[in-house]
């Protein structure tokens, strides 16, 4: 039984269907039947979502043909930074290949993935089921089902919590007598504000991304949606959080490090009001470190570990964790799976390691970030990564290596091979943060 029909829950259900005769996914929301629709349980769908190449690869492996279905419905499969005008903290990236990225409205993505999962007759996805707690076996050492609001409890041999960032697993475990998990948290107080536009003319690139940096902690992205609409998502830390009102939303885009986004949307017609989002802290609930763990329970996706979304990793990590679970279950008979949950929890959450390192070390560049202070290794990593990024702006080989890691397709060690280190060192004189990077000509 999988709790939550977000990306983590759906891909996990697909993996479990190879091991159990029947998998049931429960979601608190009524799930759309005929096409993409907003769901209150996934409020982040109002904001730009990108799926990096590693996430695309795993989704395709688990649900073959989904990428083509998505692009057929209007999602954009792009090469970053070639197809995206991208201002890094140092400078503009050259339009060279780097990593594949899928850009789709989050509602479209969820609906299509859910539809693909539902084609598997072993999986049932049920909406309108609000889970309120876990049921324990008579020994108290195993989870044997869930309780629901306004419905009778349901039994299951394995329960997977994929209820996202609002997961109540710590309280549910406490009710069974388990201690709270250790939590590591870094909060750079990043705020989001997004709105959908109709643009009078395509902006000349397939999308754009303007990153902030410590001396100018404001940024934004403009990405295409299906049906020719565009989604502008603005971000800023602390007092720089983007406004959720008119005309301040547009005014904010004039204060970014480049006028590219302002120029792209200023003559556009806003189709929605701006919507904000503030709970963007990185938070790792270390269930994998708990001394005692019940049989028959796993916690996956944002429910276990969530990231500052500005690095675009949550969905890709949800996919790689499902892949890790798939590998860990290979050869394990279904009857033994509940008893192996402690080890499985460790294996699946390890998929979050690299994204966690990227998000927290980048957030720690901002002096106001709350959380354990950076150690020496993190500070060295930050300095090296500033150089990598400055070099990657102009050197296609470095750009490719950088995007390979950012997309979670290649391990970070790829940035430390002797060849790459030499390339980085050869660019040591490049400024890591020029004052006013010139705005490059669009080359659609
Ligand atoms: C503003 C923002 C922007 C983001 N941008 C990106 C991006 O560009 N790229 C990227 O990869 N990731 C991004 N993310 C992260 C991404 O949204 C998540 O990591 C991803 O959705 C995986 O989450 P999940 O499946 O664990 O949870 P969710 O997608 O949040 O799904 C949780 C599900 O559980 C259901 N649920 C909750 N409580 C209950 C309950 N009690 N009973 C039953 N069902 C319940 C909800 O209805 C929902 O369907 C972003 C996040 C935010 C907040």
Give me a quick take on this structure.
The longest helix has 19 residues, at 376-394.
Tell me about this structure.
It comes from Streptomyces katrae. GO terms for molecular function: FAD binding. Residues 2-330 form the FAD-binding domain. The chain is α+β, with helices and mostly antiparallel strands and 444 residues long. Among the domains are: 2-49 and 105-186 and 280-357, FAD/NAD(P)-binding domain (3-Layer(bba) Sandwich); 190-277, Alpha-Beta Plaits (2-Layer Sandwich). The chain has 13 helices and 21 strands. Strands 5, 13, 14, 15, 16, 17 and 18 form a 7-stranded mixed sheet that branches. α1 (7-16) runs parallel beside α8 (314-329). The protein is globular and about 65 Å long. The model has no long low-confidence stretch (mean pLDDT 94). The structure holds flavin-adenine dinucleotide (FAD). Flavin-adenine dinucleotide is lined by residues 3-9, 26-29, 41-42, 44, 47-51, 129-131, 162-166, 192, 277, 301-303, 309, 312-316, 318.
């Amino acid at each position: 039984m999988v709790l939550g029909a977000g990306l983590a829950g759906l891909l996990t259900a697909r993996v479990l269907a190879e091991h159990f005769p029947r998998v049931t996914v429960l979601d608190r929301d009524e799930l759309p039947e005929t096409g993409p629709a907003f769901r209150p349980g996934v409020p982040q769908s109002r904001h730009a979502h990108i799926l990096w190449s590693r996430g695309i690869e795993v989704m395709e492996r688990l649900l073959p043909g989904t990428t083509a279905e998505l692009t057929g419905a209007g999602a954009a499969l792009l090469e970053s930074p070639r197809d995206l005008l991208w201002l890094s903290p140092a400078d503009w990236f050259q339009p060279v290949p780097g990593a594949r990225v899928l850009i789709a409205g989050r509602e479209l993505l969820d609906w299509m993935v859910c539809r693909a999962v539902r084609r598997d007759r072993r999986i049932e996805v049920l909406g309108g089921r609000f889970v309120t707690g876990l049921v324990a076996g008579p020994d108290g050492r195993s989870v044997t089902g869930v309780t629901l609001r306004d419905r009778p409890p349901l039994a299951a041999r394995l329960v997977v919590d994929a209820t996202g960032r609002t997961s109540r697993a710590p309280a549910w475990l406490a009710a069974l007598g388990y201690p709270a998990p250790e939590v590591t948290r870094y909060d750079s107080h990043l705020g989001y504000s997004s709105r959908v536009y109709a643009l009078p003319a395509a902006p000349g690139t397939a999308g754009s991304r303007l990153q902030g940096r410590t001396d100018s902690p404001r940024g934004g992205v403009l990405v295409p949606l299906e049906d020719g609409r565009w989604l502008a998502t603005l971000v800023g830390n602390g007092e720089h959080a983007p406004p959720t009102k008119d005309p301040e939303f547009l005014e904010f885009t004039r204060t970014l490090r480049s006028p590219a986004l302002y120029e792209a949307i200023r003559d556009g017609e806003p189709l929605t009001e701006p919507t904000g989002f503030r709970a963007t802290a990185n938070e790792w609930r270390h269930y994998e470190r708990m001394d005692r763990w019940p049989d028959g329970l796993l916690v996956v996706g944002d429910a276990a570990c969530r990231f500052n979304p500005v690095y675009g990793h949550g969905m890709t990590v949800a996919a790689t964790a499902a892949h890790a679970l798939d590998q860990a279950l290979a050869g394990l008979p279904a009857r033994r799976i509940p008893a192996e949950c402690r080890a499985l929890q460790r294996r699946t959450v390890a998929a979050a390691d690299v994204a966690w390192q990227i998000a927290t070390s980048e957030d720690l560049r901002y002096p106001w970030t709350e959380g354990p202070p950076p150690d020496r290794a993190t500070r060295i990593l930050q300095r090296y990564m500033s150089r990598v990024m400055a070099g990657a702006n102009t050197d296609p080989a470095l750009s490719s290596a950088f995007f390979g890691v950012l997309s979670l397709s290649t391990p970070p060690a790829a940035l430390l091979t002797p060849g790459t280190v030499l390339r980085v060192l050869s660019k040591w004189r490049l400024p890591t943060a020029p004052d006013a990077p010139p705005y490059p000509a669009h080359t659609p």
